[in-house]
Amino acid sequence: AVVSTQSTGMGRNNRYKDKRRMARDDKFNRDAHDLAVSERSRPEGEEPTWARGLGTLAMWDFEQCDPKRCTGRKLARFGVLQTLRLNQRFPGVCLSPTGSLVVNPADRDIIKKHGLCVVDCSWAEIDNTPITRLKIGYPR
Q1: Helix (H, G, I), strand (E, B) or coil at 23
Q2: Quick one: DSSP state of residue 51?
């Protein structure tokens, strides 16, 4: 087989992808800036609009992922949710990878009253994760 050294036009396609990527990043940066400005202009003690109607947000973190890329840890760093210890009980709805029920509109009152919690673990290590030891009020 003869290998051609001529360009196949892939460079043009890559430039197009780069432009799309830069446009997406610009939009993300503008949205993040707008959110930061709106948060600074929000009166002290007032709940942000995205959090209205939610109760407590919490997470059990099994530290099985990259801490720099983990969304749950980032939310905890920003104070959006609280991190729970393994033996700590959570009375609200808990989203778990082993849950058998789905979240439905009937859970709204439970979430408002008791809050929402997630289990942050890796699918690759799900067998080694002690999810059965968690004290969950309403598993989903």
Answers
A1: helix
A2: G
Write the pLDDT tens digit of every residue in 20-44: 777 766 766 666 656 555 555 556 6
pTM for this one? 0.58
Distance CA 113, CA 91 (A): 9
Q: How far is CA 67 from CA 44, 46, 61, 73, 87, in A?
A: 30, 30, 11, 7, 22
Alpha-carbon distance 32 to 78, whole Å? 14
Q: Which amino acid, 68?
A: K
- pLDDT, tens digit (0-9, with 9 covering 90-100), for 78-125: 888 888 888 888 888 988 888 888 988 888 888 888 888 888 888 788
In the chain, the largest separation of any two C-alpha atoms, in whole Å, equals 70
Give the per-residue pLDDT at 131: 80
Amino acid identity, position 65: C
Calpha distance 97→94 (Å, rounded)? 10
